[in-house]
Design brief:
This protein is mainly alpha-helical. The chain has a domain of about 100 residues: Helix Hairpins. The protein contains 6 helices and no strands.
Length: about 170
C-alpha cells in the first residue's frame, strides 16, 4: 500500500468517526425530546397544554361577548347619549375579542408543527431501533417549583371539579 492510499484510508476513517459521532449526538438529542422509555410524551403534553389554552381562551371570549351583548340590550333603555357611549364601548370589546380567533389559529399552527416534529422523532426512533435508545438514559423529570405552576388540570389528568366538590360536599 502506498502513502497516498494510507492517507485516503485515514481520511475515510476520520470521516466515518465524525459521522458516527454525529449519529450518536442526534440519537441523544432525539432521546432528550422523546425517549421511547419515558413514561410520558413531552411533545404531546405540550400540544395538550396549547389545546387547553385555546379552549380556555375560547370559553372566556364567549363569556365576554355574551356580556357585551347583554350590555347592548341594557343600553336600549337609556338615553341616546348613554346608549351611544355604551354602544361604542361594546364595539371596542367586540373588536378586542378578535384576538381569540387569531391566537387560536396561530396556536393551532404551532400544535401542528409540534405534532410533525413528534412524528419525525418517532420515525427516527423506529429507524435506529428502540433497543438502541435503551442504552441512552431517559431525561430526568424536571420536578422543581415550576412543576407546581401548571394551572388547572387538563381533561386527561388530575381530578375533575365534580370529584373535588364530592370530597368536600
Amino acid at each position: 500500500m502506498n502513502a497516498e492510499g494510507s492517507d485516503d484510508d485515514a481520511e475515510l476513517r476520520s470521516e466515518l468517526e465524525e459521522l458516527t459521532s454525529q449519529i450518536h449526538a442526534t440519537m441523544n438529542e432525539v432521546a432528550a425530546l422523546r425517549h421511547p422509555m419515558m413514561d410520558h410524551d413531552r411533545v404531546e403534553a405540550a400540544v395538550d397544554e396549547l389545546a387547553a389554552i385555546v379552549a380556555a381562551t375560547e370559553v372566556a371570549t364567549e363569556h365576554i361577548l355574551a356580556s357585551a351583548e347583554r350590555l347592548e340590550a341594557l343600553a336600549e333603555g337609556l338615553s341616546e347619549e348613554q346608549a351611544g357611549e355604551i354602544g361604542d364601548t361594546v364595539t371596542h370589546i367586540y373588536e378586542a375579542c378578535n384576538f381569540q380567533d387569531i391566537t387560536g389559529q396561530r396556536i393551532s399552527k404551532v400544535m401542528a408543527l409540534l405534532r410533525d416534529v413528534d412524528d419525525r422523532l418517532i420515525a427516527m426512533i423506529r429507524h435506529y431501533g428502540h433497543d438502541r435508545f435503551a442504552q441512552i438514559p431517559a431525561p430526568a423529570s424536571a420536578r422543581d417549583d415550576s412543576a407546581l405552576l401548571n394551572g388547572p388540570s387538563l381533561n386527561k389528568s388530575g381530578l375533575q371539579q365534580d370529584s373535588i366538590d364530592a370530597l368536600f360536599g
